[in-house]
Amino acid sequence: MQNVSDVAKQWIRDKGGELLSQDELQKRLVAIDQQAEQKSAEDYLALKRKVYERDSLWPSGKKTTFTFERWLPERQPNKTAATEIKAQTQNLFKRLRREAFNVFLNGSAGVGKTAMTLAIVDAFEKYTNKTTMFVSAVALREAVMFDFSDLQAKAKLKRVEKSMLEVDVLVIDDFGSEVGMAGSVRQATERLQQFYMRVADARYEVDENDKRTKCTIITSNNTRSELSTMYNDKLISRLVTKKPANILLFVGLEDVRE
User: Fold this and answer.
1) Position 207 pLDDT exceeds 60
2) Taking the model in full, what pTM does it have?
3) pLDDT reported for residue 224
4) Where are the domains of the chain?
5) Which residues contact 130 (CB under 8 A, 6 or more apart)?
6) Whose C-alpha in 17, 117, 143, 144 is 20 to 30 A from the C-alpha of 198?
């Protein structure tokens, strides 16, 4: 007479099922656990990215995207300079995948600083598990300066600041334009400077190996010395790198906006 185990095995065979040894079953369970962990990690990353996208401040109020493939050097009169900028930006992204540091993109208006920054953001989202956030300096100034009587605006600014402190890759676009034109001696308000200082300090945190974990990318029409007339020197020291290898100068390019 067949025991219960034999009957169960025969039933599984009749149904086209697969009989596994104890070792095979254990391996299968481990694989299932790994798949579940991977799916959980992917879902968590997707959720975090949605939060940082929600808290981003875009000049137009809507998310803007760009890719390296869309950068066409032939649109510039100086094709060689445009080709070199593309290569430098791609190499910069490769370095940023391995380590975190501040980046400064400097040049006149309309030459592609924001476009190349968005291409870096796109590459981070496609090829890494890093989170990204885009903040227009002009939009941020409005949020910081005009939240006094609006409780909803104040709550949003608090969320924005928290995300700016925590996100892996933070872009502050058009830094300095919120204060004045190039060469202006006007200074940013104390409130705005304090906001930026809190962000800058938090983003210099290091891990157990004394390595930075967060990257801040600044784009500006103003030179570093011009920005120093607008903002506190300590803030500029924390936000705007002076290391040549981490600076992209958009020289020899023209405004191609239509």
Assistant:
1) yes
2) 0.84
3) 94
4) 56-249
5) 124, 168, 169
6) 117
